[in-house]
């Protein structure tokens, strides 16, 4: 009788772990903001929740969406990357928190022409209205950038203190881990 009861508990726990993994890899996952690049919108160490449906089904987020990206744009991503970045797997394996995940805002999509002048970002010749940025951007670039197919361009809201597409380059669609959703627990 005891063995049957223990096996029931083991099956229940195994099902719960598998369900948590599937949810975290394909549906939604919590992330922690690390640093001040998204000030004033998001604070250092703030927890956010990310819908992973855009990653699961490979569709582009909207302009202005806050996304979590894998900043290692020079390498291919695999399913193992998705699995090992899950917090439950990190907890079970004792691996360190992954600092290659950045929280940024979508500025450009494939085919967009971007310019950086007059302390503003111009997309397709029109200056963006960005009430969310911390202060006027000091960055200036000669020429124009065209976002390639299957990539996006992202920037932090704290433009003068953000490592983003200006440094790491265009973000491949498969490196977009998900789109931030409103915190369901604070509404």
In words, what does this structure look like?
This protein has one domain: Umud Fragment, subunit A (Ribbon), CATH 2.10.109. β6 and β7 (126-127) form a beta hairpin. The mean pLDDT is 88. A seven-stranded antiparallel sheet has the order 1-2-11-3-4-9-10. It contains five helices and eleven strands, in the order αββαβααββββββαββ. With 187 residues, the chain is α+β, with helices and mostly antiparallel strands.
Compute the CA-based radius of gyration. Answer: 19 Å
Q: Would you identify the regions where 5 or more consecutive residues have pLDDT less than 50?
A: none
Element-level helix/strand string:
HEEHEHHEEEEEEHEE
Report the sheet-strand fraction.
Answer: 25-35%
Major pleated sheet: 7 strands, antiparallel
What is the 3D form? elongated
Number of domains: 1
What CATH first level would be assigned? Mainly Beta
Output the CATH homologous superfamily: Umud Fragment, subunit A
CATH 2nd-level architecture: Ribbon
**CATH topology-level fold name:** Umud Fragment, subunit A
Total of helices: 5
How many β strands by DSSP?
11
Residues in helix, %: 25-40%
- Going by helix content, strand content and strand pairing, the class is alpha+beta
The side-by-side strand order for the widest beta sheet comes to 1-2-11-3-4-9-10
Mean pLDDT: 88
Termini separation comes to 46 Å
